[in-house]
Write a structure and sequence with these properties.
This protein is an alpha/beta fold. Helices cover about 30% and strands about 25% of the residues. The chain has seven helices and twelve strands. Helix 5 packs across helix 6.
């Protein structure tokens, strides 16, 4: 499915401000195939005619890492850089502020999801255009318990549970207004479209992809290499 929209309609915000604590080293500078991890999602969005710019949100307070991330990417006038904040929400807000005002739509994507496909971006953008906001997701395959410490409170109905991915696509103005109206501390915002949910906006799910995995631990990079090699 190809989304037919005018050029320069969409800005991608690549959230690269994390500390890679569980990975043990900066995962975005690891090698995947013939390039660095950070290069894969950046180039996926740069290849699209509907993308006006890619904003890479780098870690606050780590000049060396920020320079390394910039050095791993091509010199392209559509790439912009901004520093992140103390939480994901702060970083996303900084990224949104760096987007030109005439760009109507945002695609917020984890820089640590290197294998995002054009088909996934297309169907997420199509759903966002139709409904205002959309997020790819996969059904949760395991039974989930809600607990108080170690005491089980209840079993959640699995048919209603979805594990979200990125890119999460929404109108830029809707996100900025949701930030202004957010009643929760930003450290409680763990998902970008959660801000829109809190503002009462409609958010739709689209089918995610298993290969669109997020690199959290070294074994995830091994799995990404297997996906890349078609195994």
């Amino acid at each position: 499915m190809t989304v037919r929209v005018p050029p320069d309609t969409l800005a991608a915000i690549l959230v690269a401000a994390g500390k890679s604590v569980r990975f043990g080293r900066d995962k975005l500078l690891e090698t995947l195939g013939d390039r660095r991890v950070i290069s894969w999602p950046v180039e996926a969005f740069l290849s699209r005619a509907d993308v006006a710019c890619v904003v890479v949100v780098t870690p606050a307070g780590d000049d060396e890492l920020s320079r390394a991330l910039e050095g791993a990417l091509p010199r392209d006038p559509r790439i912009r850089y901004t520093r992140g904040g103390e939480t994901r929400a702060h970083s996303v807000r900084a990224g949104a502020a760096a987007v030109p005002e005439d760009v109507a739509w945002l695609a917020i994507h984890d820089a640590a999801r290197p294998l995002v496909s054009q088909a996934l971006i297309d169907r997420t953008f199509a759903a966002a255009l139709a409904h205002g906001a959309a997020v790819p997701a996969l059904p949760v395959p395991t039974t989930i318990k809600e607990a108080d410490g170690s005491r089980v409170l209840r079993t959640l109905p699995r048919r209603a549970l979805w594990a979200t991915q990125t890119p999460q696509i929404m109108r830029r103005q809707a996100l900025l207004e949701a930030f202004d109206r957010c009643a929760l501390p930003f450290d409680q915002i763990t998902d970008d479209v959660q801000l829109l949910e809190l503002a009462g906006a409609e958010v739709r799910l689209v089918e995610g992809e298993s290969r669109n995995l997020k690199l959290t631990e070294p074994v995830d990079l091994d799995l990404a290499r297997l996906w890349l090699n078609g195994r």
